[in-house]
Design goal:
Layout lengths: L3 H14 L6 H8 L13 H5 L14 H22 L14 H11 L6 H9 L12 H15 L5 H9 L8 H12 L2 H13 L2
């Protein structure tokens, strides 16, 4: 699975390749919804990440938000296929912290592939509540997107990454170690080259 900026980039790649009348803002909102579980212990990964079958790009009958949600799961699957094709996990330290270090570094690598972050920051800070069928309060829903609004407002550096990780209860105590691991991975050109290929090949 990828981190949040990368998922936004993937959504942009989808719209670039498949022009659509679907509401892009709501699609992006859905595409980063599944990881809300990181701030709400009542949401289990299986609840958000096994929600659609089969995982493909058929969004018939889905709302824009639901389509984005399904797209998130599709991209998680495709990302692993791409990384495995390039034997990414054979490189040193790529599996650190359950692959989280590589995921966050991917946000940095992909960030400049999108050019309207200001609009998304405003949208996330004023997010409309969407009923998801999950036990998610409006407060939690708004908090998740507010955290993301802060994270995406500029290309993430080590400080921004540490803050973002510290907002996630299960990762807060590990934030310093994850950032140190990211700093190490960043120096490996092969790591960053392969992470860059994911956005190029995802759809």
């Amino acid at each position: 699975m990828a981190s949040q900026i990368a998922h936004i980039i993937y959504a942009k790649k989808y719209f670039d390749k498949y022009p659509s009348t679907i509401n892009k803002d709501e699609f992006i909102l859905g595409s980063i919804f599944p990881d809300m579980r990181r701030i709400d212990g009542n949401i289990k990964r299986k609840d958000t990440h096994r929600h659609y079958d089969p995982l493909d790009l058929n969004f018939d009958g889905l709302t824009a938000f639901e389509a984005g949600w399904k797209f998130h799961l599709y991209c998680d699957m495709r990302r692993e296929e791409i990384l495995n094709k390039y034997d990414f996990y054979s490189l040193p330290e790529t599996e650190n912290f359950w692959h989280i270090s590589a995921k966050i570094l991917e946000d940095e690598v992909a960030y400049n592939k999108y050019n309207n972050w200001e609009k998304l920051v405003h949208y996330f800070n004023n997010v409309p509540f969407v009923k998801t069928g999950m036990n998610v309060s409006q407060e939690t829903f708004s908090l998740w997107y507010a955290i993301l609004a802060k994270y995406i407002e500029k290309k993430p550096d080590s400080k921004a990454m540490r803050i973002f990780l510290s907002k996630q209860p299960a990762l807060a105590e590990k934030a310093d170690g994850i950032v140190q691991s990211i700093d190490t991975l960043r120096k490996n050109n092969k790591v960053t080259d392969i992470l860059g290929k994911v956005a190029e090949e995802i759809v």
